[in-house]
Design goal:
This is ATP synthase F0 subunit A. Keywords: Membrane, Transmembrane, Transmembrane helix. Pfam families: NnrS (PF05940). By secondary structure, this protein is mainly α. The protein has 2 domains: about 20-180; about 190-400, no CATH class. Helices cover about 70% and strands about 0% of the residues. It contains 12 helices and no strands. It has helices spanning about 25-50, 65-90, 100-120, 120-150, 155-175, 180-215, 225-245, 250-265, 280-300, 310-335, 345-365, 370-395. α1 runs antiparallel to α12 (about 370-395) and α5 (about 155-175) packs antiparallel against α6 (about 180-215). The chain is globular and about 55 Å long. The chain starts with about 25 loop residues before the first helix and ends in a 9-residue tail after the last helix.
Protein backbone atom coordinates (compact mmCIF):
# COMPACT_ATOMS: atom_id res chain seq x y z
CA UNK A 1 0.00 0.00 0.00
CA UNK A 2 2.77 2.45 0.86
CA UNK A 3 5.31 1.92 -1.91
CA UNK A 4 6.51 4.93 -3.87
CA UNK A 5 8.23 4.95 -7.24
CA UNK A 6 9.96 8.02 -8.60
CA UNK A 7 10.28 8.88 -12.28
CA UNK A 8 13.31 7.02 -13.59
CA UNK A 9 14.32 9.42 -16.35
CA UNK A 10 13.78 12.96 -15.16
CA UNK A 11 16.67 13.02 -12.69
CA UNK A 12 19.11 12.37 -15.53
CA UNK A 13 17.71 15.14 -17.71
CA UNK A 14 19.03 18.71 -17.64
CA UNK A 15 17.01 21.01 -15.40
CA UNK A 16 15.85 23.88 -17.58
CA UNK A 17 13.46 25.55 -15.13
CA UNK A 18 13.27 25.92 -11.37
CA UNK A 19 10.12 23.78 -11.17
CA UNK A 20 11.93 20.87 -12.86
CA UNK A 21 14.37 20.54 -9.96
CA UNK A 22 14.33 17.15 -8.20
CA UNK A 23 12.82 18.85 -5.15
CA UNK A 24 9.58 19.38 -7.09
CA UNK A 25 9.39 16.01 -8.84
CA UNK A 26 7.39 14.25 -6.13
CA UNK A 27 5.36 15.77 -3.30
CA UNK A 28 7.02 13.93 -0.42
CA UNK A 29 10.36 15.68 -0.94
CA UNK A 30 9.08 19.21 -0.39
CA UNK A 31 6.35 18.31 2.11
CA UNK A 32 8.82 16.50 4.39
CA UNK A 33 11.31 19.35 4.49
CA UNK A 34 8.78 22.19 4.65
CA UNK A 35 6.56 20.38 7.18
CA UNK A 36 9.54 19.69 9.44
CA UNK A 37 10.78 23.28 9.20
CA UNK A 38 7.27 24.61 9.87
CA UNK A 39 7.06 22.49 13.03
CA UNK A 40 10.43 23.80 14.21
CA UNK A 41 9.43 27.43 13.65
CA UNK A 42 6.03 26.90 15.29
CA UNK A 43 7.68 25.30 18.31
CA UNK A 44 10.25 28.10 18.57
CA UNK A 45 7.41 30.63 18.57
CA UNK A 46 5.56 28.57 21.18
CA UNK A 47 8.67 28.26 23.36
CA UNK A 48 9.21 32.01 23.20
CA UNK A 49 5.60 32.61 24.16
CA UNK A 50 5.87 30.24 27.15
CA UNK A 51 8.92 32.16 28.38
CA UNK A 52 7.38 35.60 27.70
CA UNK A 53 10.13 36.44 25.22
CA UNK A 54 7.41 37.64 22.86
CA UNK A 55 3.63 37.60 22.54
CA UNK A 56 1.42 36.12 19.87
CA UNK A 57 -0.79 38.65 18.13
CA UNK A 58 -3.86 38.89 20.42
CA UNK A 59 -6.21 39.69 17.52
CA UNK A 60 -5.74 36.32 15.79
CA UNK A 61 -5.96 32.76 17.07
CA UNK A 62 -5.58 32.38 20.83
CA UNK A 63 -2.15 30.95 21.76
CA UNK A 64 -3.26 27.40 22.59
CA UNK A 65 -5.43 27.12 19.48
CA UNK A 66 -2.62 28.56 17.34
CA UNK A 67 -0.16 26.00 18.74
CA UNK A 68 -2.60 23.12 18.27
CA UNK A 69 -3.53 24.23 14.75
CA UNK A 70 0.00 24.66 13.47
CA UNK A 71 1.21 21.32 14.84
CA UNK A 72 -1.78 19.35 13.57
CA UNK A 73 -2.28 21.03 10.22
CA UNK A 74 0.87 23.01 9.42
CA UNK A 75 2.94 19.96 10.35
CA UNK A 76 0.92 16.73 10.49
CA UNK A 77 -1.54 17.23 7.64
CA UNK A 78 1.15 18.72 5.40
CA UNK A 79 3.38 15.68 5.65
CA UNK A 80 0.53 13.17 5.48
CA UNK A 81 -0.97 14.68 2.32
CA UNK A 82 2.43 15.07 0.68
CA UNK A 83 3.20 11.42 1.23
CA UNK A 84 -0.18 10.22 0.00
CA UNK A 85 -0.01 12.42 -3.11
CA UNK A 86 3.28 10.68 -3.86
CA UNK A 87 2.15 7.14 -3.05
CA UNK A 88 -0.97 7.48 -5.22
CA UNK A 89 1.31 7.48 -8.26
CA UNK A 90 2.31 3.90 -7.46
CA UNK A 91 -1.18 2.82 -6.46
CA UNK A 92 -2.73 4.01 -9.72
CA UNK A 93 0.13 3.87 -12.22
CA UNK A 94 -0.63 7.48 -13.15
CA UNK A 95 1.68 10.47 -12.65
CA UNK A 96 0.85 12.56 -9.60
CA UNK A 97 1.29 16.28 -9.13
CA UNK A 98 4.82 17.51 -9.83
CA UNK A 99 6.73 20.36 -11.42
CA UNK A 100 4.95 23.69 -11.86
CA UNK A 101 1.57 22.59 -10.38
CA UNK A 102 3.36 21.26 -7.29
CA UNK A 103 5.38 24.46 -7.01
CA UNK A 104 2.12 26.45 -7.17
CA UNK A 105 0.59 24.31 -4.41
CA UNK A 106 3.68 24.73 -2.25
CA UNK A 107 3.63 28.49 -2.82
CA UNK A 108 0.02 28.57 -1.64
CA UNK A 109 1.00 26.55 1.44
CA UNK A 110 3.86 28.96 2.22
CA UNK A 111 1.55 31.98 1.95
CA UNK A 112 -0.89 30.28 4.34
CA UNK A 113 1.87 29.58 6.88
CA UNK A 114 3.09 33.18 6.78
CA UNK A 115 -0.47 34.45 7.30
CA UNK A 116 -1.00 32.16 10.29
CA UNK A 117 2.37 33.15 11.75
CA UNK A 118 1.39 36.85 11.51
CA UNK A 119 -1.85 35.82 13.26
CA UNK A 120 -3.97 38.95 12.99
CA UNK A 121 -7.72 38.80 12.46
CA UNK A 122 -7.34 39.77 8.81
CA UNK A 123 -4.53 37.32 8.07
CA UNK A 124 -6.33 34.44 9.80
CA UNK A 125 -9.49 35.11 7.77
CA UNK A 126 -7.48 35.18 4.55
CA UNK A 127 -5.49 32.11 5.59
CA UNK A 128 -8.71 30.23 6.33
CA UNK A 129 -10.02 30.95 2.83
CA UNK A 130 -6.72 29.94 1.22
CA UNK A 131 -6.53 26.84 3.41
CA UNK A 132 -9.89 25.79 2.00
CA UNK A 133 -8.50 26.26 -1.52
CA UNK A 134 -5.46 24.17 -0.56
CA UNK A 135 -7.61 21.32 0.74
CA UNK A 136 -9.85 21.36 -2.34
CA UNK A 137 -6.73 21.18 -4.53
CA UNK A 138 -5.26 18.28 -2.55
CA UNK A 139 -8.51 16.29 -2.58
CA UNK A 140 -9.18 17.05 -6.26
CA UNK A 141 -5.73 15.85 -7.36
CA UNK A 142 -5.97 12.68 -5.30
CA UNK A 143 -9.59 11.90 -6.21
CA UNK A 144 -8.92 12.40 -9.93
CA UNK A 145 -6.12 9.82 -9.85
CA UNK A 146 -7.82 7.09 -7.82
CA UNK A 147 -11.22 7.48 -9.47
CA UNK A 148 -9.77 7.45 -12.98
CA UNK A 149 -7.82 4.29 -12.13
CA UNK A 150 -10.80 2.75 -10.26
CA UNK A 151 -8.38 2.12 -7.39
CA UNK A 152 -11.14 1.34 -4.89
CA UNK A 153 -8.81 0.13 -2.16
CA UNK A 154 -7.50 3.64 -1.68
CA UNK A 155 -10.75 5.58 -2.03
CA UNK A 156 -10.71 5.86 1.77
CA UNK A 157 -8.35 8.84 1.70
CA UNK A 158 -10.99 10.94 -0.09
CA UNK A 159 -13.42 10.96 2.88
CA UNK A 160 -10.51 11.02 5.33
CA UNK A 161 -9.00 14.17 3.83
CA UNK A 162 -12.47 15.67 3.48
CA UNK A 163 -13.20 15.18 7.18
CA UNK A 164 -9.79 16.60 8.09
CA UNK A 165 -10.51 19.64 5.93
CA UNK A 166 -13.95 20.14 7.47
CA UNK A 167 -12.52 19.83 10.98
CA UNK A 168 -9.90 22.46 10.24
CA UNK A 169 -12.43 24.84 8.70
CA UNK A 170 -14.79 24.34 11.65
CA UNK A 171 -11.94 24.88 14.10
CA UNK A 172 -10.88 28.14 12.46
CA UNK A 173 -14.42 29.45 12.11
CA UNK A 174 -15.11 28.59 15.76
CA UNK A 175 -12.06 30.54 16.84
CA UNK A 176 -12.89 33.51 14.61
CA UNK A 177 -16.37 33.61 16.16
CA UNK A 178 -14.81 33.57 19.64
CA UNK A 179 -15.78 29.99 20.48
CA UNK A 180 -12.38 28.86 21.70
CA UNK A 181 -13.78 25.93 23.68
CA UNK A 182 -15.27 24.41 20.54
CA UNK A 183 -12.10 25.10 18.56
CA UNK A 184 -10.03 23.23 21.14
CA UNK A 185 -12.51 20.36 21.14
CA UNK A 186 -12.33 20.06 17.36
CA UNK A 187 -8.54 20.05 17.55
CA UNK A 188 -8.59 17.25 20.12
CA UNK A 189 -10.99 15.32 17.90
CA UNK A 190 -8.46 15.74 15.11
CA UNK A 191 -5.81 14.13 17.32
CA UNK A 192 -8.05 11.08 17.70
CA UNK A 193 -8.50 10.99 13.92
CA UNK A 194 -4.75 11.02 13.47
CA UNK A 195 -4.72 8.14 15.96
CA UNK A 196 -7.08 6.17 13.71
CA UNK A 197 -4.89 6.92 10.69
CA UNK A 198 -1.73 5.86 12.54
CA UNK A 199 -3.46 2.71 13.72
CA UNK A 200 -4.49 1.73 10.19
CA UNK A 201 -1.22 2.58 8.47
CA UNK A 202 1.02 1.45 11.32
CA UNK A 203 -0.94 -1.75 11.72
CA UNK A 204 -0.30 -2.57 8.06
CA UNK A 205 3.30 -1.54 7.55
CA UNK A 206 5.06 -2.10 10.89
CA UNK A 207 4.66 -5.92 10.83
CA UNK A 208 5.75 -5.93 7.17
CA UNK A 209 8.79 -3.72 7.82
CA UNK A 210 9.67 -5.78 10.90
CA UNK A 211 9.52 -9.09 9.07
CA UNK A 212 11.75 -7.83 6.26
CA UNK A 213 14.08 -5.63 8.27
CA UNK A 214 14.69 -8.06 11.14
CA UNK A 215 14.66 -11.05 8.74
CA UNK A 216 11.90 -12.88 10.58
CA UNK A 217 9.82 -15.65 9.07
CA UNK A 218 6.51 -14.28 10.31
CA UNK A 219 5.26 -11.16 12.08
CA UNK A 220 1.50 -10.98 12.37
CA UNK A 221 -1.39 -10.59 14.77
CA UNK A 222 -4.91 -12.06 14.87
CA UNK A 223 -7.05 -10.31 12.19
CA UNK A 224 -9.86 -9.99 14.73
CA UNK A 225 -7.78 -7.33 16.51
CA UNK A 226 -7.91 -5.12 13.41
CA UNK A 227 -11.69 -5.32 13.21
CA UNK A 228 -12.18 -4.70 16.92
CA UNK A 229 -9.72 -1.82 16.93
CA UNK A 230 -11.30 -0.05 13.97
CA UNK A 231 -14.80 -0.33 15.44
CA UNK A 232 -13.73 0.78 18.92
CA UNK A 233 -11.58 3.65 17.58
CA UNK A 234 -14.28 5.01 15.29
CA UNK A 235 -16.93 4.71 17.98
CA UNK A 236 -14.64 6.29 20.56
CA UNK A 237 -13.90 9.26 18.31
CA UNK A 238 -17.58 9.72 17.49
CA UNK A 239 -18.59 9.55 21.16
CA UNK A 240 -15.81 11.96 22.15
CA UNK A 241 -16.87 14.42 19.45
CA UNK A 242 -20.57 14.17 20.34
CA UNK A 243 -20.04 14.32 24.10
CA UNK A 244 -19.16 18.01 23.80
CA UNK A 245 -22.62 18.81 22.44
CA UNK A 246 -25.01 16.28 23.99
CA UNK A 247 -25.11 14.14 27.11
CA UNK A 248 -24.50 10.50 26.23
CA UNK A 249 -24.92 7.42 28.43
CA UNK A 250 -21.55 6.08 27.23
CA UNK A 251 -18.37 7.86 28.30
CA UNK A 252 -15.55 8.06 25.73
CA UNK A 253 -13.16 7.08 28.52
CA UNK A 254 -13.97 3.37 28.32
CA UNK A 255 -13.62 3.33 24.54
CA UNK A 256 -10.29 5.17 24.68
CA UNK A 257 -8.91 2.71 27.22
CA UNK A 258 -10.21 -0.23 25.20
CA UNK A 259 -8.62 1.12 22.00
CA UNK A 260 -5.31 1.69 23.79
CA UNK A 261 -5.30 -1.85 25.17
CA UNK A 262 -6.08 -3.27 21.72
CA UNK A 263 -3.16 -1.34 20.21
CA UNK A 264 -0.81 -2.72 22.86
CA UNK A 265 -2.22 -6.21 22.30
CA UNK A 266 -1.38 -5.92 18.58
CA UNK A 267 2.09 -4.66 19.39
CA UNK A 268 2.73 -7.68 21.64
CA UNK A 269 2.60 -9.95 18.56
CA UNK A 270 5.21 -8.00 16.58
CA UNK A 271 8.39 -9.25 18.34
CA UNK A 272 9.59 -5.78 19.27
CA UNK A 273 12.61 -7.17 21.16
CA UNK A 274 14.10 -8.31 17.85
CA UNK A 275 14.18 -4.77 16.44
CA UNK A 276 16.50 -3.21 19.03
CA UNK A 277 19.47 -2.92 16.69
CA UNK A 278 17.49 -1.42 13.81
CA UNK A 279 16.56 2.21 14.43
CA UNK A 280 14.01 2.43 11.60
CA UNK A 281 12.13 -0.43 13.27
CA UNK A 282 12.36 0.16 17.02
CA UNK A 283 11.34 3.79 16.50
CA UNK A 284 8.12 2.65 14.79
CA UNK A 285 7.44 0.12 17.55
CA UNK A 286 7.95 2.83 20.19
CA UNK A 287 5.63 5.18 18.32
CA UNK A 288 2.91 2.56 18.03
CA UNK A 289 3.27 1.73 21.72
CA UNK A 290 2.95 5.44 22.53
CA UNK A 291 -0.33 5.50 20.63
CA UNK A 292 -1.75 2.75 22.83
CA UNK A 293 -0.39 4.29 26.02
CA UNK A 294 -1.65 7.75 25.10
CA UNK A 295 -5.19 6.50 24.52
CA UNK A 296 -5.16 4.71 27.88
CA UNK A 297 -3.99 7.91 29.59
CA UNK A 298 -6.71 9.91 27.84
CA UNK A 299 -9.32 7.51 29.16
CA UNK A 300 -7.80 7.44 32.64
CA UNK A 301 -7.86 11.25 32.80
CA UNK A 302 -11.66 11.06 33.10
CA UNK A 303 -11.30 9.23 36.42
CA UNK A 304 -8.42 10.97 38.22
CA UNK A 305 -7.04 14.52 38.36
CA UNK A 306 -3.56 13.03 38.71
CA UNK A 307 -3.56 12.36 34.95
CA UNK A 308 -4.33 15.54 32.98
CA UNK A 309 -6.07 15.06 29.64
CA UNK A 310 -3.28 17.05 28.01
CA UNK A 311 -0.70 14.50 29.19
CA UNK A 312 -2.36 11.69 27.27
CA UNK A 313 -2.90 14.01 24.32
CA UNK A 314 0.81 14.85 24.12
CA UNK A 315 1.88 11.22 24.43
CA UNK A 316 -0.12 10.73 21.23
CA UNK A 317 0.97 13.91 19.43
CA UNK A 318 4.66 13.78 20.40
CA UNK A 319 5.38 10.12 21.14
CA UNK A 320 3.10 8.53 18.55
CA UNK A 321 2.41 11.06 15.80
CA UNK A 322 5.73 12.93 15.99
CA UNK A 323 7.90 9.83 16.30
CA UNK A 324 6.01 7.80 13.68
CA UNK A 325 6.25 10.70 11.22
CA UNK A 326 9.95 11.21 11.97
CA UNK A 327 10.70 7.52 11.49
CA UNK A 328 8.58 7.15 8.34
CA UNK A 329 10.08 10.31 6.83
CA UNK A 330 13.56 8.88 7.42
CA UNK A 331 12.63 5.57 5.79
CA UNK A 332 10.88 7.13 2.80
CA UNK A 333 13.60 9.76 2.29
CA UNK A 334 16.17 6.98 1.94
CA UNK A 335 14.23 4.19 0.27
CA UNK A 336 12.37 6.25 -2.28
CA UNK A 337 15.35 8.27 -3.44
CA UNK A 338 17.16 5.01 -4.26
CA UNK A 339 19.31 4.83 -1.12
CA UNK A 340 19.85 1.94 1.27
CA UNK A 341 17.80 1.92 4.48
CA UNK A 342 20.80 2.80 6.63
CA UNK A 343 20.11 6.07 8.48
CA UNK A 344 22.90 8.02 10.11
CA UNK A 345 23.51 7.15 13.75
CA UNK A 346 22.41 10.61 14.87
CA UNK A 347 18.86 9.77 13.76
CA UNK A 348 18.72 7.24 16.60
CA UNK A 349 19.39 10.17 18.93
CA UNK A 350 16.51 12.10 17.35
CA UNK A 351 14.12 9.13 17.66
CA UNK A 352 14.99 8.47 21.29
CA UNK A 353 14.94 12.17 22.18
CA UNK A 354 11.43 12.60 20.80
CA UNK A 355 10.14 9.59 22.72
CA UNK A 356 11.73 10.86 25.94
CA UNK A 357 10.09 14.24 25.37
CA UNK A 358 6.71 12.51 25.20
CA UNK A 359 7.43 10.79 28.52
CA UNK A 360 8.62 14.07 30.02
CA UNK A 361 5.53 15.92 28.82
CA UNK A 362 3.30 13.23 30.36
CA UNK A 363 5.00 12.69 33.73
CA UNK A 364 6.35 16.04 34.92
CA UNK A 365 2.97 17.84 35.14
CA UNK A 366 1.87 15.22 37.68
CA UNK A 367 4.85 16.32 39.79
CA UNK A 368 3.86 19.98 39.62
CA UNK A 369 6.43 20.77 36.93
CA UNK A 370 4.12 21.65 34.07
CA UNK A 371 5.95 24.75 32.87
CA UNK A 372 9.29 22.95 32.89
CA UNK A 373 7.74 20.01 31.01
CA UNK A 374 6.37 22.34 28.32
CA UNK A 375 9.75 23.98 27.79
CA UNK A 376 11.83 20.80 27.79
CA UNK A 377 9.51 18.93 25.45
CA UNK A 378 9.35 21.89 23.04
CA UNK A 379 13.14 22.15 23.00
CA UNK A 380 13.46 18.40 22.44
CA UNK A 381 11.07 18.56 19.49
CA UNK A 382 13.07 21.41 17.94
CA UNK A 383 16.33 19.47 18.27
CA UNK A 384 14.88 16.20 16.92
CA UNK A 385 13.38 17.75 13.80
CA UNK A 386 16.39 20.01 13.26
CA UNK A 387 18.47 16.82 13.12
CA UNK A 388 16.09 15.46 10.48
CA UNK A 389 16.37 18.60 8.36
CA UNK A 390 20.16 18.64 8.70
CA UNK A 391 20.49 14.97 7.70
CA UNK A 392 17.86 14.73 4.97
CA UNK A 393 17.79 18.14 3.29
CA UNK A 394 20.73 17.15 1.04
CA UNK A 395 18.99 13.84 0.28
CA UNK A 396 15.64 15.36 -0.62
CA UNK A 397 16.99 18.05 -2.93
CA UNK A 398 19.31 15.65 -4.79
CA UNK A 399 18.42 13.43 -7.75
CA UNK A 400 17.50 9.82 -7.13
CA UNK A 401 20.39 7.39 -6.64
CA UNK A 402 20.50 3.88 -8.05
CA UNK A 403 21.58 1.80 -5.07
CA UNK A 404 18.57 -0.51 -5.42
CA UNK A 405 18.99 -1.17 -9.13
Amino acid sequence: MLNIQEPQTQDNMPVSTFSEHAFFQLAFRSSFILGAIASILAMVIWLGFLNAWWQLNPTGLTPTVWHLHEMLFGFGATIATGFVLTAVQTWTGRPSIQGTPLLALLSLWLIIRVLFFINSTATVILATILQGVWWVSIIAVYAHLVLAAKNRRNYLFIPLFSVMALLEMALLISELTIDTAQALHLGRTMVLMFGILMGIVGGRVIPFFTRNGAKLSKVSHPPLLDTLLLVVSLLGTLVFFSHFYIALPLSPAYLMIAAGCLHLAKLSFWQSHKTLGISLLWSLHLAYGALGLGLILLGASYFTPLIPFSSGLHVITVGAMGLMILSMMSRVSLGHTGRMLLPKAIMSVAFLLLFLMAVTRALLPALGLSHFAWQVSALGWIIAFAIFVWVYFPVLIAPRQDSFR
